[in-house]
Specification:
Immunoglobulin-like, alpha+beta, ClpP/crotonase-like_dom_sf, disordered N terminus, ten-stranded antiparallel sheet, 2 domains, 2-enoyl-CoA Hydratase, Chain A, domain 1, signal
Length: 371
């Protein structure tokens, strides 16, 4: 069976959640024409390795599709060890995100597959203390041991652990060969099926768009990764762009309601806030670096299997404070809730604007009546 057919079907399986900010890891399986796919999406949590192993016990061979901002390092290492023992392949498309602990899982694949335009992001392991990311020597030692077991060279270990927790070393189809890592790249030619190259680096092309109809599109698609921020397009909000940062137990998203307006919103979610109710109002205060708080009602909004809080913003000064700030304090009903680091917010905002402009141009090209 042709590779293009298999991966176009597989692309249906990696559903990018929207308008979700944060989601517990989902580990699901599908089978097409005798090929087994294991899909890991969302935050990797403790004991996810046990769930994965129960699936791995069933399949002798599988392709592991990845879409995650990371999570629990030890669980990720155990999943990677299982993948290597089973001889599974791993795959990241250019429409999905795979950074931090997810990148460690990807390294275990035999082969490791990557879209020509995709990237996999690495940084040092860390512990989260009151919103501060402190590098973990113990965690880095575990990662170093794991990479050694994968028979990866010292320069790979350094690449995977040298970036600070606030930054990323990005592995791409262009730079992997200099890092001592074998990668199978999947390349697509315009208006044709993906083609596997006959010489290294071979490639696999897949998109998180529900085929076969070209008019169909995912609810959310990736624009670009910028440091610890992920810039995406929300197709349920009139092509509005947003920036997302994942803090483990919390997720913070900020963006525009639609591509050609400055109607803004901030969205916050926490995996442990189980008492939140959809459509109910909660008074939040958002404070950037000690500035005057932004206080107002946030509405409970369904995000996968949890409820998050969305606050609409109508003042451009919100963005002015966002781009120059390093931290965000959130209070609920006058009491402290969480403090988040938002380093790199200016770069994230600049990329949101580029994304917005691109969406406007793209829409006007396809819709001549949109003036």
């Amino acid at each position: 069976m042709r590779v293009s057919v298999v991966f176009k079907l597989a692309s249906c399986l990696v559903a990018l959640f929207a308008p979700s900010v944060i989601n517990a890891a989902k580990i699901e399986t599908k089978e097409y024409d005798g090929i087994n796919f294991v899909i890991i999406s969302g935050e990797i949590s403790l004991d996810d390795d046990k769930r994965f192993n129960r699936i791995a016990a069933v399949f002798d061979d599988a392709v592991v599709l990845l879409d995650s901002n990371g999570g629990a390092t030890i669980s990720a290492l155990k999943i990677g060890e299982s993948i290597r023992l089973k001889g599974y392949s791993t795959y990241v498309s250019d429409s999905n995100t795979c950074v931090s602990a997810c990148a460690l899982i990807w390294l275990a694949g035999s082969p490791r597959m990557l879209d020509e335009g995709a990237s996999v992001g690495f940084h040092a392991t860390y512990t989260d203390t009151d919103g501060r990311k402190l590098e973990s020597g113990y965690g880095n030692a575990l990662v170093g041991r794991y990479l050694t077991l994968l028979n990866l060279p010292e320069k790979t270990v350094l690449f995977a652990t040298s970036a600070s927790p606030e930054n990323l070393n990005s592995l791409t189809a262009r730079n992997y060969s200099g890092l001592g890592i074998d990668v199978k790249v999947i390349k697509a030619t315009p208006e044709s099926d993906p083609v596997i190259e006959s010489v290294p680096p071979p490639v696999v092309r897949t998109v998180s768009t529900p085929p076969p109809a070209k008019l169909a599109s995912p609810q959310v698609s990736l624009w670009k990764n910028v440091g610890l921020w992920t810039i995406r397009v929300d197709h349920t909000l009139n092509e509005g762009c947003f920036a997302l940062s994942d803090y483990g137990k919390y997720g913070f998203r900020v963006g525009f309601e639609q591509a050609d307006t400055l109607v803004s919103y901030a969205l916050l979610a926490g995996t442990e806030w189980k008492s939140l109710k959809e459509n109910e109002k909660y008074q939040l205060s958002l404070t950037f670096d000690g500035e005057t708080p932004w206080t107002g009602n946030a509405t409970g909004i369904k995000l996968g299997n949890i409820v998050g809080l969305r606050m609409n913003i109508s003042d451009d000064k919100f963005w002015q404070e966002f781009v120059k700030s390093q931290s965000l304090r959130v209070d609920y009903d006058g009491s402290f809730l969480v403090n988040l680091r938002i380093k790199g917010s200016k770069n994230a905002f600049d990329e949101i604007i580029k994304c917005q402009k691109s969406q406007i141009i793209s829409r006007r090209k396809t819709d001549p009546f949109d003036k």
